[in-house]
Design brief:
Blueprint lengths: L2 H7 L4 E6 L5 H15 L5 E4 L8 H14 L4 E6 L5 H14 L3 E5 L20 H8 L6 E6 L10 H13 L2 E6 L5 H13 L6 E2 L1 E2 L5 H11 L5 H8 L6 H21 L4 E5 L5 H12 L4
Parallel strand pairs: 1-2, 1-9, 2-3, 3-4, 4-5, 5-6, 6-7, 8-9
Helix pairs in contact: 3-4, 5-6, 10-11
Bound molecules: flavin-adenine dinucleotide.
Flavin-adenine dinucleotide binds next to strand 3, strand 4, helix 5, helix 6 and strand 6.
Length: 293
């Protein structure tokens, strides 16, 4: 199904989970459990990331195939074109099309951090908007793009960044999924500015549960999302080193964030699982038992 059609027919806001291919045998074992437990929550769809420079090409394909064919889930496949030439792009997308994938999220991606000698293909595309222009006339996918409530980490300005999101919509993106933030005000301001410049596609907020301070700091360095003073103070007030207390705090924080987003009328909530199950399950179960999902 095309994700935009899910939003058209769904009576309720959607719930969806992001997964990525496992990087080790141990991670694969854990991912299996995560998939089964999250599938039991009957999400409207799941998404699968695609490593920069095609680094997870086979792993992403196999995960999409498993989720779709073995687990019967609707899958949004992410695709990042960073460093790839036109033939690599069509080879990946042909495989997804042949698998019956109908929705793709097109992101630029970043050069792989662990490959300092990474050589991009000479005909690679500079931006997601260019990738969308290339992909849109060649395929019948429902295409989407990435959005950034606080602006992309490299952006010249938040205004410019939103202009580029508009270009992505003009070049074929029918929906957007956003990076997470820890203060919904960033998302609400972003939405207002998107609508003001004429971006009228559905915009699905990403929500990142907090479960580890180290992980929170690492991701923030990568994405530029602000760790608010409230979050810092509330975490500092938890018993030091108590992992369960932090996990529960992360669930509570995400639940209240989701409730505020849902009451503002977002099409759904997209949970960045980091391939873990506890937070995502805790959040969805609470939102459902409180009757907001
Ligand atoms: C929902 C979501 C899913 C993601 N999935 C993945 C994934 O699966 N794998 C992965 O590796 N990464 C993923 N990312 C991360 C993403 O690849 C990075 O954030 C990347 O640095 C930017 O991708 P983009 O598509 O936003 O790029 P772009 O839209 O190309 O933007 C990149 C930068 O260039 C600027 N810009 C954009 N268009 C133009 C233009 N036409 N001219 C000049 N400047 C421009 C923007 O302001 C921005 O600063 C995801 C991000 C999100 C929010």
């Amino acid at each position: 199904m095309r994700v935009t059609d899910i939003w058209k027919v769904s009576q309720k806001p959607t719930v969806s989970f992001e997964l990525f291919p496992a990087r080790s045998a141990k991670a694969a074992e854990s991912l299996e459990k995560t998939i089964d437990e999250l599938a039991a929550l009957k999400p409207d769809f799941v998404s699968v990331t695609f490593g920069a420079g095609g680094s997870t090409r086979e792993g992403s394909y196999q995960l999409v195939k498993k989720l779709k064919n073995e687990k019967g889930l609707e899958v949004v496949a992410y695709f990042t074109g960073c460093g790839l030439g036109p033939e690599d792009i069509t080879a990946v997308l042909d495989d997804y099309r042949d698998l019956g994938v109908e929705t793709i999220l097109v992101a630029r991606g970043d050069p792989p951090r662990d490959q300092p000698d990474f050589q991009p293909h000479p005909q690679c595309f500079a931006h997601a908007s260019d990738l969308l222009s290339f992909i849109q006339p060649r395929y019948n996918f429902c295409l989407g793009a990435a959005g950034y409530p606080e602006g992309h980490i490299e952006c010249e300005s938040r205004e410019k960044d939103i202009e580029y999101l508009k270009l992505k919509a003009e070049n074929g993106a029918e929906y957007a999924i956003t990076n997470y933030c820890y203060d919904n005000q960033y998302f609400f301001d972003f939405m207002k500015r998107c609508r003001a410049i004429g971006i009228d596609v559905p915009i699905l907020p990403g929500v990142m549960p907090i479960f580890s301070v180290k992980m929170m700091e690492t991701l923030t360095n990568l994405t530029g999302a602000t760790i608010t003073d409230t979050v810092r103070q509330e975490i500092a007030a938890l018993p030091a080193g108590d992992k369960e207390a932090l996990l529960n705090y992360g669930i509570e924080f995400a639940v209240s964030q989701c409730k505020e987003l849902l009451s503002a009328g977002v099409p759904g909530v997209h949970i960045y699982t980091m391939d873990r199950r506890s937070s995502a399950k805790g959040i969805v179960n609470r939102l459902r038992s409180d009757g907001v999902l």
